[in-house]
Predict the 3D structure of the following.
Amino acid sequence: MKTHFFAVKDIVRITGVTARTLHFYDKINLLKPTQLSDKGYRDYSIEDLERLQTILFLKEMDLPLKEISDIMQLSKEEQLQILKLHHQTLLAKQQRLGTIISALEDYVSGKEIINLNIFNNSPSSDEVQKLIVEWKSYLEQNMTCDAEILECIANTYKSDNRWKNYFRQFCDDDLTEFVYQAIMFYCKTSGK
């Protein structure tokens, strides 16, 4: 049985990858064609096409070509494990984007920011705690910022009317309580 090969134009049509990209991948030994035709044209096998699809999946993970090249040296099973992890990452990103799109639609239609479902309304959620870590890193650029100081700031947000009035510009009083709880949760669980 004769093996079917794909020309560069076929691969371009099937995958949307440019001929220039295929030539570059050949040049850097990331994707070599199975053979060259009698006229010197690159011929790709179905295995090459599968390899290209794996490369494209890895590119979508924003991996540099050097790292993709290293992964392509792994066994097929190891590559599949990496792609399974990528699949889980994409599902989480898809869910997060769905939440953001929904919140954005609510926000532009006039819903108050505190009532949006961005943070799952939980001061202990991963998203909120990541924001607390980021906020703390900004504070640390100008001052020492241990748990005691963070707790003091949290208490000020909660009890000082100036802060309550400031936050009230953006939404109702619940935001100061929310920020207080988020900071206190961070202090309690970070061990710092």
Summary: The domain at 6-70 is CATH 1.10.1660.10 (Multidrug-efflux Transporter Regulator; Chain: A; Domain 2). The chain has a mean pLDDT of 86. DSSP finds nine helices and three strands in the chain. The chain has three domains: 6-70, 74-111, 119-190.
